[in-house]
Amino acid sequence: MKKRNIGLVGLAVMGQNLALNIENKGYPVVVFNRTGSKTRDFIKTSAKGKNVTAVYSFKDIVGSLKKPRIVILMVKAGRPVDDTIRQLVPWLEKRDLIIDGGNSFFKDTIRRGEELEARGILYIGAGVSGGEEGALKGPAIMPGGQKEAYDLVKHLFYDIAAKAEDGTPCVSYIGPGGAGHFVKMVHNGIEYGDMQLIGECVWTFKNALDLDAKEISNILVSWNSSNDILRSYLIEITGKGLKEKEKGSDKFLVDRIADITGMKGTGTWTVKSSLELLVPIPTITSAIFSRGMSQDKDLRLAISEKLKFDKGKYTGSRDELIDTAHDALYIAKISSYAQGFALMKAASEKYSFNLDLGKIVRGWRAGCIIRAQFLNEVEQEYEKNPDLENLIAAPTFRNFINKNLHKLASFVNISHIVGVPAMAMDCAYDYILQMASPIMISAQVLAQQRDYFGAHGYFKLEKNGPGILRKSDGCYKEYHTRWMMDGHPEKEK
């Protein structure tokens, strides 16, 4: 058998489409799937007449490849990845390369990389975004692992990746270990936030203005025009999807779809990581919780029979609400992305990923689900200031927020009046509000409460000075008040 360039394991839709993408770019591919019938079906249909060879064992896929061998895994995250690696390794040699192109948890990727490195085998955990279409036509790729491993396949990645409008491939080396899968995880968390924010706008338009799906579609289509700050893939597909009619019916498909949203795990991993790193991502978290509540359909029906509160009416103009929603959504988007980027910044320090946030954004401009006009502005801000403390502080965004934050507050208020739980919008607003609060009175009260019931202590300003002094200035010392003693004496902890 003639030796091939690339091996691919896992022929679900993503794996099939990625194999076709690779072959289309001039790389002969050998494919294997645990279920042999799926391999045979692929060869007889989509891969018919193409430079794709089928094999039916791990021994044969490795034996069919040129050295150093490159094997891409497109299998389900978790145990299936470990099982696949376990069966591949006996046939591999030192300096061969395994690429995990699935949505693996980044800590699993770190562990697998260390185990394989001990055997002399190279390993890349590559986040691949773009869904079925992206896999076929060009995804955004986020590879992490040894730099040596990336250099071995960077030209393959360049060839198969999506290309931005300026022709730049949407791929670059993210960092060591699980950096690629961490960034893909946060990408997916941001995606959850984007989707929820758009959904809350649609719901509010429906309740406040009594618009049908086609009328709301027209609004989103106008927002997706070439020069609009909201132009994005998600706005585009939402606008297109809303006007779709159910087959054989005059009803809009979206009105017939059950209000139950699924999840595959990357969003919850993002939230768990934020808790571990103590980085607040309330907009993304609210999007996860909203999906969770959608699955409690029977409970929601039961509660709705017991709570019969009156909903208000929106009395303003249609155009005014649409304008308010447009700018509110843009600000909420800035807030949500700021949360995601703060999480990546913290992880970069914790795990020594050395993430280049500007380069990451550059790789999201095409191919991936969150591709948007907005990302060009984000990239420019990180180019001007790679050490930006938070995205909401970037000049372009802070100027817009300063002028228009009241629109987000107004939108949340209108949503609540007409009975729409705008959880993500509300959290996006409160994140900005709290980040911009030099004094958090609630935190002062909580610190005092904790000291009162648990003797946990509190920090107190040790010296006076002009303005508000920073914690990093060393002006705060920790104290405990003896609340149970007469006079409530205070002592330094």
How would you characterize this protein structure?
The protein is globular and about 80 Å long. It is α/β, with parallel strands linked by helices. α1 (13-24) runs parallel beside α6, α8 packs across α12 and α15 (318-350) crosses α18. The protein has 20 helices and ten strands. The strands form two sheets. The protein has a seven-stranded mixed beta sheet with strand order 3-2-1-4-5-6-7, with helices on both faces. A three-stranded antiparallel beta sheet has the order 8-9-10. The mean pLDDT is 93.
Largest sheet features: 7 strands, mixed
Helix/strand order, N-terminal first: EHEHEHEHEHEHEHHHHHHHHHHHHHHEEE
- Our estimate of the beta-strand percent is 5-15%
Can you give the mean pLDDT?
93
Flag low-confidence runs.
Answer: none
* Overall form: globular
How many helices? The count is 20
What is this structure, in a nutshell?
With about 500 residues, the protein is of the alpha/beta class. It contains 20 helices and ten strands. Strand 5, helix 5 and strand 6 form a beta-alpha-beta unit.
Question: How does the SSE layout of this entry go?
Answer:
Elements: E1 6-9, H1 13-24, E2 29-32, H2 36-44, E3 52-54, H3 58-63, E4 70-73, H4 79-88, E5 97-100, H5 106-118, E6 122-129, H6 131-137, E7 140-145, H7 147-160, H8 179-209, H9 213-223, H10 233-242, H11 253-256, H12 266-277, H13 282-294, H14 297-306, H15 318-350, H16 357-362, H17 374-384, H18 395-417, H19 423-435, H20 441-454, E8 458-461, E9 476-481, E10 490-492
Parallel strand pairs: 1-2, 1-4, 2-3, 4-5, 5-6
Antiparallel strand pairs: 6-7, 8-9, 9-10
Helix pairs in contact: 1-6, 8-12, 8-13, 8-15, 9-10, 13-19, 15-18, 15-19
